């Protein structure tokens, strides 16, 4: 017998940021997955996922770029629109692409407004103290903001690759200071990526806003994964990823069986043909 949890049949008809805060206060972990298109977004809504992140990881997961630094604002508008038009209940969050906010608060607000117009309900941007003016400007413009600390993929070049952040005391203290600075600037939640579990637990304790972990241990208030990693489609098997399905192999098998059926004339049969 399957022990898979069933999607919620009660609870809010629409997830808002206040529900994430409520979940933190009640000690109830919440869920976020990336989504970039109509079908994945609808499947995750049906599964009861609380938050859909139109991540700039669309660049590496879908568009074939080697880094999220290549994902453009136009990419983000296109995929945000696809997800936002496809679901009702999950909160839809979109990433501000590399280069759209590092240049200052005015640019951050201009690009944030466009993401909200495309259907996002909050925007996410990477960084600590250095982006406090951008966060303040976005919040003042009425745009909810989610921060992103730890390994920040848009800084992959200056961070010298995908590395756990905050292992040393000074680095951990800096992360905690950055989290508090983001909270004071008005963020509604903070993603913690590739951070030691104990450091993420400490940050989760000291900030009042929810934390959302990816490679940050079990004590964050919510968890997020790139969906193709979660479902075993990308083939990425980093230490922090658990694959909950094996879609890559299943998809390949389906394509091989289709190919065999077509080349042997077993498909299409009379039942697939019109009189
Ligand atoms: O773009 C993305 O998918 C992200 C997650 C890794 C949090 O930012």
Defining key terms:
single chain; 275 residues; alpha/beta; TIM Barrel; 8-stranded parallel beta barrel; EC 2.1.2.11; pantothenate biosynthesis; Pyrv/PenolPyrv_kinase-like_dom
Strand order of the largest sheet: 1-2-3-4-5-6-7-8
Q: What CATH architecture of the largest domain would you give? A: Alpha-Beta Barrel
Distance between the termini: 44 Å
Strand content: 5-15%
Bound molecules: 3-methyl-2-oxobutanoic acid
Identify low-pLDDT runs: none
Shape: globular
Provide the CATH topology of the largest domain: TIM Barrel
* Computed Rg: 20 Å
Q: Main beta sheet: strand number and arrangement?
A: 8 strands, parallel, barrel
Class from helix and strand fractions: alpha/beta
- CATH homologous superfamily annotation of the largest domain: Phosphoenolpyruvate-binding domains
Query: Could you estimate the helical fraction of the residues in percent?
Result: 25-40%
Overall mean pLDDT: 96
The number of helices is 10
Number of domains: 2
Supply the CATH class of the largest domain. Alpha Beta
Q: How is the secondary structure organized here?
A:
Layout: H1 17-26, E1 30-34, H2 38-46, E2 51-54, H3 58-61, H4 73-84, E3 91-95, H5 105-118, E4 122-124, H6 132-140, E5 145-150, H7 169-185, E6 189-193, H8 197-206, E7 211-214, E8 222-225, H9 227-230, H10 247-263
Helix pairs in contact: 4-5, 5-6, 7-8
Bound molecules: 3-methyl-2-oxobutanoic acid (KIV).
The site of 3-methyl-2-oxobutanoic acid has 11 residues, from β6.
Subunit structure: Homodecamer; pentamer of dimers.
Pathway: Cofactor biosynthesis; (R)-pantothenate biosynthesis; (R)-pantoate from 3-methyl-2-oxobutanoate: step 1/2
Binding site for 3-methyl-2-oxobutanoate: 56-57, 95, 124
């Amino acid at each position: 017998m399957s022990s898979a949890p069933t999607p919620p049949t009660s609870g809010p008809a629409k997830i808002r940021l206040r529900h994430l805060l409520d979940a933190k206060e009640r000690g109830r972990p919440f869920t976020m997955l990336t989504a970039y298109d109509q079908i994945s977004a609808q499947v995750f809504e049906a599964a009861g996922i609380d938050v859909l992140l139109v991540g700039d990881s669309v660049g590496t997961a879908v568009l074939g770029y080697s880094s999220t630094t290549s994902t453009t604002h136009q990419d983000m508008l296109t995929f945000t629109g696809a997800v936002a038009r496809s679901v009702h209940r999950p909160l839809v969050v979109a990433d501000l692409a590399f280069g759209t906010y590092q240049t200052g608060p005015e640019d951050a607000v201009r690009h944030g407004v466009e993401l909200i117009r495309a259907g996002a309900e909050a925007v996410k941007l990477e960084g600590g103290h250095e982006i406090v003016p951008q966060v303040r400007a976005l919040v003042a413009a009425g745009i909810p903001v989610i921060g992103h600390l730890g390994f920040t993929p848009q800084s992959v070049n200056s961070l010298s690759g995908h590395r756990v952040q905050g292992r040393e005391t000074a680095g951990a203290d800096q992360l905690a200071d950055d989290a508090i600075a983001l909270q004071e600037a008005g963020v509604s939640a903070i993603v913690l990526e590739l951070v030691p579990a104990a450091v993420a637990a400490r940050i989760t304790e000291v900030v009042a806003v929810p934390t959302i972990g990816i490679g940050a241990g079990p004590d964050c208030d919510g968890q997020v994964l790139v969906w193709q990693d979660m479902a075993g489609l990308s083939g990425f098997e980093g230490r922090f990823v658990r694959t909950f399905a094996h879609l890559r192999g299943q998809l390949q098998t389906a394509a091989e069986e289709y190919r065999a059926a077509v080349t042997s004339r077993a498909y299409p049969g009379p039942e697939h043909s019109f009189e």
